[in-house]
Each structure stands twice: as C-alpha cells, then as structure tokens.
Amino acid sequence: SQKIEQNSEALNIQEGKTATLTCNYTNYSPAYLQWYRQDPGRGPVFLLLIRENEKEKRKERLKVTFDTTLKQSLFHITASQPADSATYLCALDPFSGGYNKLIFGAGTRLAVHP
Amino acid sequence: EAGVAQSPRYKIIEKRQSVAFWCNPISGHATLYWYQQILGQGPKLLIQFQNNGVVDDSQLPKDRFSAERLKGVDSTLKIQPAKLEDSAVYLCASSDNSGNTIYFGEGSWLTVV
C-alpha cells in the first residue's frame, strides 16, 4: 500500500543544534516533495519544494535532501531556535490523474529548548 | 496579498445536525482544495476543484459531505448529517496554475458532540 511515514515521536533538541526530520514513502514515484510548517491552531505554511532530479535544496537555515532510491527526504534546520518549534509535514505529489495533488504525512513535532 | 479566508473558525454541533464551511481562495488561484485534519494526523484531501469543476473527490464521503465552487471562486463544504468522527479541522487551500505550492487558510474547527 502507499504510505508516507514521518517520526510520530516528538523531536526534542537544544537551541543551536541541528534538527533533522525524516520522511519516508512507499509505493509512490513523486515528481517532487514538499515540506510545510504547522503551528498549533494554524494552517500549514509552505517551506521548501525539491524535485526528483535535485539532490539538495537550501533556504536560509533550512536544507532538504531527496533520495529517490531510498525513497526518503531529510529536512534539516541548522542553528535551531525556540521559534522553530512546530510540527513539520512532508507532502508529495503522486503525479496521478494529470493534475497536481498533494498527499501529506502525519508530521513530526519539533521542540527546541533554550 | 490577502490569504485564504475561511469561516467560521469554530463550530460545535450535535451529531446528526448539519454544518457548512465557507472558503475564499487567493485571488486568481484556479485550484481550490478542502482537506480534513484529525488531531495528530496530517491533512487528508477531501475534494479538489480546478476552476469550478471537480478533479478529485475520491476521499469525500459523498453520503454526508458535499462541496461546491460556484463561479470558480468561493467554495462551501457541507456536512449533513454530522457524525462524531467528523470532529476535525477543515482546511481550505488554493494554488495557482503551477500547483506546486499550496496556500492554506487557518482552518475551521468542528466539534461534533
């Protein structure tokens, strides 16, 4: 069956360290993968998109990798800050039906402690 | 630029009652989505519109949920009759023709008691 898996346990790290979140998928061949941030009581906010022919993408303190062989994406936040505490969702487009469609993982909650 | 607007933000109803949620997407966005997010889970796509036509409603429980997007702009999502398991946040989102980035509203929180 098709699955998108993210660590269900919260990730607790110390301020200043690098946070690494994992997204694994099964039985999809996505053309691209996205990461979103969701704060409590708010809608998800787009952070980064990485395409299947890109190995790595960076934006300020954020870095995303995409390994289509391992069927895995890693999301890194360097020099983490308490303000980075949120739930991070990965999403992919299964590229079916001729239209863009996003399927989301359950998300991983990140807590950055001062 | 105004974001995706949703209302109401919060709604509490009894089971078997009906409820409607309204969404106004970002101006010019052709694609509109309704997602359901149950606590602790990721958003699940219920229905996707391209202009005023439905492109995907495969996960919409059509016996109780309905949605429309008249004139290709605003949209309403209705639940009738509601069940306890419909308690969730209903997220509306929109995207432009590239469809690569989805912009979400703040969501409508539904509690069915």
How is this structure best described in words?
The complex is a heterodimer of chains A (114) and B (113). With 114 residues, chain A is an all-beta fold. Chain A has no helices and 11 strands. In chain A, strands 2, 4, 5, 9, 10 and 11 form a 6-stranded mixed sheet that branches. Chain A has a 5-stranded antiparallel sheet with strand order 1-3-8-7-6, with no helix packed on it. Chain A is globular and about 45 Å long. Chain B has 113 residues and is mainly beta. Helices cover 0% and strands 49% of the residues of chain B. Chain B has no helices and 11 strands. Chain B has strands at residues 5-7, 10-13, 19-24, 31-37, 44-50, 53-56, 65-68, 75-79, 88-95, 103-104, 108-112. Chain B is globular and about 40 Å long. Chain A binds chain B through residues 4, 32, 34, 41-46, 49, 89, 91, 97, 99-107, and chain B through 4, 31, 33, 35, 40-45, 48, 50, 55-56, 91, 93, 95, 98-107.
